[in-house]
Amino acid sequence: MTAARKALLETERRVLYGLVRYPGSTDKQLSAQVRLKVPTVTSIRLKLARGGYFKTVRVPAFNRLGCELLSASLLTFSAHPPLEQKVRLVSSVLRRPEFVFGISEANQDLFLQIGADLTTVRRNTEDLEGALKSIGYLEAPISMIQFPFSLSSVPIYFDYANLLQHTFWPDQPLDVRTDPLPFEPGPPAALSDKDQEVLGGLVRYPACHDLELSTRIPASRMTIGRTKKRLARERLFALRTIPNLEYLGFEVLLVTHGWFNHTLSEGLKSYVPELVRTIGPPIFAAYGKNELLFINAFEDFARYKAAYAHFTEAYTINEIFARPPDRAIFSLRDLVTPKNHEYGDLTEALSVPTPVRTDARGKPRSSAQA
Asked: Using one digit for the tens of pLDDT, what is the confidence trace for 229-285?
């Protein structure tokens, strides 16, 4: 156990877990969930926030807002270019709104994009590849791991609740979430210009209360509150609390990409989520028809090796993969995060249909009538 984790008292663990498991809860609601008094919850939450132990993000339901796919790219380098040089070189490409998350080490990178279409995502990837080729260290062309929302499932999107529960209280059965998933299926959304403006503000400034947000976007506090409740009711965004894993004593981040065996039966394919959990509670998991990608965190390299050996044994016995999965092992101590859950630019750039206005008989109104 690291010194960082020893510094967290049991009450602090309970509050941090509650913030991750029940994002958006008031201190009063949280106190009931973690069985602590409201003033204690408030005091600990403020202490953890000031200490940089967590950040809160809003993730829009991009699959219902005109986006077609989530795409991941794993990059490896044949030599170790200076990390600062590499990040600086690709910064202009990474500023594009489709890039929402990225981690980088001297010898490898992982980037996630969310895009309205494959053409845009592919162009971004090719431009990223071109920038990196200019320093001569890119080991192979950048591969795109594509998860079209209509054909894929993203059941775990940077959800750290089970990881913290398993780490803090390993003997307890893991809880099951019931709050909205970021990309759960649903009908296409229609937003007015004001709706999109408020959603953009909520996403860009997730820690702001309604009054403060009204000073940052051209909308009143009442409009923001009313719109936020409606968007939440329609499950058009999901809240996520992202803990600082390094502060909690974690050292290793593992990214695994596997291709399913083409002879895999549907019965065995349904076993895959359980198989993934044999390595430990993932913080990210995406499943396509032929491939999967998941991310795990470990307290140290020894725990990673033991967990991965168990996972390898399980998938080998059941012949799950066409070949051994690709994996990238990142050191939380050494990596940098050039894009850290930045969804505001993409939200504001979306082209979302506006609601159809109807008259008293339910018929669409003309622009002249509107």
From this structure: 999 999 999 999 999 999 999 999 999 999 999 888 888 888 888 889 889 999 999
- Asked if the model's pLDDT at residue 357 lies above 60, the reply is no
Q: Which helix (H) or strand (E) holds 310?
A: helix 301-317
Domain boundaries, the chain: 63-158+245-340
Q: What is the pTM of this model?
A: 0.91
In eight-state DSSP terms, residue 356 is P
Q: What gap in Å lies between CA 358 and CA 362, rounded to an integer?
A: 5
Q: CA-CA distance, 358 to 368, in Å (whole number)?
A: 12
Report the percent of the chain where pLDDT is more than 70.
Answer: 93
**Residue listed under structure tokens 């162009």:** 123
Length of the chain: 370
What architecture is the 63-158+245-340 domain classified under in CATH? 2-Layer Sandwich (3.30)
Mean pLDDT of the chain, nearest integer: 90
